[in-house]
# Entry
Amino acid sequence: MLEEERRVTLRLALDPYSWRAGDKADWAMRLAGATEAAAPQIISVESYEIGDTLIFLRLRTREEPKRLKKLLRNDERFMRLRARLADLDVRPEFEIDENKNDRDRA
# Structure
C-alpha cells in the first residue's frame, strides 16, 4: 500500500526592516531551497507565495502528523533550518494538515 502525502504550510514571517520588496522573489526561492535541502527525504517544496511580510511555502510529506510534529521539534536537521532562518531574521511557523491529501481522489 502506498503512503499518502500530506500538506504542510511553512509560514515565514519576514522582518520588514531587513527585507526589500525587490528581494522577496529571490529570497523566496532561496528559502524554499534551504527548506527542501534540510531534509529532502522527509519534505519537498511544492510551491510558494509571497506576501508583504510573509512567505508561504507549500510542502509535501509522507510522514504521519504525529511523527512529523516530533521531527520538526526535535530533529537536528530542522533545528539547523530554524537556526539558519533566525540568522536571516525570518520567523518560521509550521502548520500540518492533519488530513490526507485528496488531490488524486475523485
User: Anything to note?
Assistant: The first strand starts at residue 6 and ends at 14. The mean pLDDT is 85. Helices lie at 24-38, 65-74, 76-87.
